[in-house]
Amino acid sequence: MAITVSHFEVDGYPRETQERHLFKAVRKLRCAWTDAQTLRADLLKADTPYYGHLYPYDTALNARCRSATVAPAPGKISQSGISVDMADYESAIVTANYSTPQPNDPQVWPGHEPETYISESLASMTEFVTLGYKNFRWGSKAGNEIEPAQAPGLLIHGLQYRFTIYSQTTVDEAYLDFLGTVNESMVTANLLDLDFQPETLLFADLNMVKGADSLWDVTYIYAIRMKGWNKWYWEDANTGVGDFVSMYHKDAADDQPHKVYKTANWFP
To answer: Measuring CA to CA, how many Å separate 264 from each of 170, 178, 246, 260?
Structure first.
């Protein structure tokens, strides 16, 4: 998107920084004080909702304006329109910060119309499980037996899959009913190039952030358990070896695993 107000680059700028995987640049642009807000808005707009003005000195880098600040230019305050609570300057300096694309930047959601922007990431999480106690003693093999209330715990480290859809006008209320359920079908994380098998994602949380444009950025948070959420940690009392296995209800009409977590097809 073109800049719509008159401006010029301040002497000594731009200033560029090249890191191993990142290019950054700072521009200082001077314009009329009354045009400063428009210039800042133009810098942060672009052909797509999430990438600002293209760095003009080397467009091949695809560096975009990520933030812009406004400050009065050195000089006298304007003599027109001065009020007791608002300053009125003749000129402004708009500082524009550019950088090249980053891994967590929103990307076009493949195969979706109208064009929608998403991001995907993994975050750490932990899960506490209680271990078996009957085969263990305190202090030595001949020590006192461990009581049930003294059973040791195991902190299992895992991951969350976070999927964000940007600039949504609303969220289907049906998703609120899916909290606490697991995926019935395989889920593909396109940007991460990962497939999650059925019942390995627990719909744990939903986070909504409303932007200045009154649109919502919606993050769906799924806890990952590659063994499956309807399997439980069981430790063989004889060998002490444990793993996640299915449970069966002894009075069930059929010989099918008991599903504590209901399944649903909720992925957006």
So the answer is: 21, 7, 19, 13
Token pair belonging to 19: 């890191």
Spatial separation of the C-alpha atoms in residues 116 and 110, rounded to whole Å = 9
25 vs 16, 21, 53, 58, 135, CA distance in Å?
4, 14, 12, 11, 63
DSSP labels for 160-223?
Answer: EEEEEEEEES---THHHHTTT-EESS-EEETTTTEEE-TT-EEEEEEEEEE-TTS-EEEEEEEE
Instruction: Report which residue type is found at 34.
Output: T
**Segment 7-60, tens digit of pLDDT:** 999 999 999 999 988 999 999 999 999 999 999 999 998 666 677 899 999 999
**CA-angle at 247, arms to 245 and 249, nearest 5°:** 170
Give the tokens for residue 114: 């109208």
Q: Among 83, 82, 4, which residue's Cα sits nearest to residue 42?
A: 4
Task: Look at residues 52, 61, 56, 71 and name the one whose alpha carbon lies nearest to residue 14.
Answer: 56
Can you read off the two tokens belonging to residue 242? Answer: 């444990």
Q: Which of 73, 63, 69 is nearest to 95 (CA)?
A: 69
> Cβ(243)–Cβ(234) under 8 Å?
yes
Q: What is the pLDDT of residues 153-182, one digit of tens each?
A: 878 888 999 999 988 888 777 788 899 999
